[in-house]
Amino acid sequence: MIFTVAIDGPAAAGKGTIGRAVAARFGFAHLDTGLLYRAVGAKGGDPVAAAEGLVPADLERGDLRSLEAGQAASKVAAIPQVRAALVEFQRRFARAEGGAVLDGRDIGTVICPEAEVKLYVTASAEVRAHRRWLEVGGDEARVLAEVRERDARDMGRADAPLRAAEDAVVLDTSAMGVEEAVARAIAVVAARMEGRG
Ligand code: CDP
Ligand code: CDP
């Protein structure tokens, strides 16, 4: 069976958490596409060469989850040749046999416009920054400023800007715990699978 669940949304909205849970529930493979951009940013040097030469071991680096790695990722993610170098890998993953969940910024709009399910997961910037701060600590005002800066860059870039696909189901998790957000996402996927018979 080929079945793609595309999950997009701004930083710390809960895309990865929902993506992992949906993948586990349906036995699908899961790809956190943000990790690809984080790995390119962390490699340093020429970002286009880094993207073209990306290997699985690059995704295993320990420092990819930091705020700094997130900022570096969103800078290299604005370069069209960097994005182009990563398209094929993501599309192959999305349409592989057995079902796949991909989360990122442009999965439903650019990488997999034919995805069977598109979710746009969001929450207020304050709520998202608080969630990220619980993970990374430090100064919460700085985490909020970085979240806002990254959102503005991701939404404002010319190539594959962050936006909800027209046919995406929008899930605003500002007032939802993880359990409720995951249950709603699973319900959307289950309904779509049933609809296909
Ligand atoms: O992948 P993305 O950056 O969108 O977010 P994440 O890493 O999945 O989630 C960020 C944090 O928010 C995690 O610690 C989650 O446990 C928490 N969280 C959530 O994902 N969803 C909620 N409804 C509430 C909290
Ligand atoms: O987990 P969080 O939402 O904070 O970030 P991420 O998903 O790891 O993505 C890091 C950065 O990579 C984003 O701010 C985007 O600039 C970029 N990205 C992208 O442009 N396209 C994607 N499909 C995924 C990530």
Task: Tell me what you see in this structure.
It is a single chain. This protein has a five-stranded parallel beta sheet, sandwiched between helices. The model has no long low-confidence stretch (mean pLDDT 97). The longest helix has 19 residues, at 178-196. The chain has helices at 15-26, 34-43, 47-52, 67-76, 80-94, 107-111, 125-136, 140-156, 178-196, and strands spanning 4-8, 29-32, 100-104, 117-122, 169-172. 54% of the residues lie in helices and 12% in strands. It has nine helices and five strands, in the order βαβααααβαβααβα. By secondary structure, the chain is an alpha/beta fold. GO terms for molecular function: kinase activity. Belongs to the cytidylate kinase family. Type 1 subfamily. This is Cytidylate kinase. Pfam families: Cytidylate_kin (PF02224).
Helix content: 40-55%
Q: Unreliable runs, pLDDT <50, ≥5 residues?
A: none
Query: Strand content of the residues, in percent?
Result: 5-15%
What form results from the Cα inertia axes? globular
- Ions, cofactors and other bound molecules: cytidine-5'-diphosphate
State the major sheet. 5 strands, parallel
Tell me which oligomeric state these chains represent. single chain
Order of helices and strands: EHEHHHHEHEHHEH
Mean pLDDT figure? 97
Helix/strand/pairing category: alpha/beta
Alpha carbon gap, first and last residue: 12 Å
Overall radius of gyration: 16 Å
Instruction: Please give the number of β-strands.
Output: 5
Strand order of the largest sheet: 2-3-1-4-5
**If helices are DSSP runs of H or I spanning 4 or more residues, what is the number of helices?**
9
GO molecular function: kinase activity
Enzyme class: transferase
Catalytic activity: CMP + ATP = CDP + ADP; dCMP + ATP = dCDP + ADP
Protein name: Cytidylate kinase
